[in-house]
Amino acid sequence: MLLLSTLAISCPEHARLESEFLEARDRLRIFVRLRKLTIAEERQLADRVAMAIARLKEHIAEHRCQRQG
After folding, report:
1. According to DSSP H, which parts of the chain are helical?
2. Cα separation, 16 vs 24, whole angstroms
3. How many CB atoms lie under 10 A from the CB of residue 21?
4. Count of alpha carbons within 13 Å of 42, Cβ hemisphere only?
5. Which residues, other chains included, contact 62 with Cβ-Cβ below 8 Å and sequence gap of 6+?
């Protein structure tokens, strides 16, 4: 798993990217629960989650920032 929510984040950009991921993930979950999505809608939401994960992983690799705990 990518996140350990019980630890503090020392890098503001890391925190922003993690928040972006969580928002995209939650949005996908909520819409899936609310109604049947079209294939295009589900793909778009899943792509947003995947891109958020990719941006966060790239940031971690470049800056080696991690949660502190």
Report:
1. 12-34, 39-63
2. 12
3. 22
4. 9
5. none
Tokens of 44: 């778009």
- What 3-state class would DSSP assign to 9? strand
The pair of structure tokens assigned to 66 is 């991690």
Asked if 21 and 56 touch (Cβ cutoff 8 Å), the reply is yes
The Cβ of residue 8 has, within 10 Å, a number of other Cβ atoms equal to 8
Q: Which two tokens stand for residue 1?
A: 């798993």
Digit-coded pLDDT (tens) for 10-62? 789 999 999 999 999 999 999 999 999 999 999 999 999 999 999 999 999 99
Neighbours of 52 (CB within 10 A): 20
Answer yes or no: pTM beyond 0.85: no
Pull the structure tokens for residue 12. 């503001």
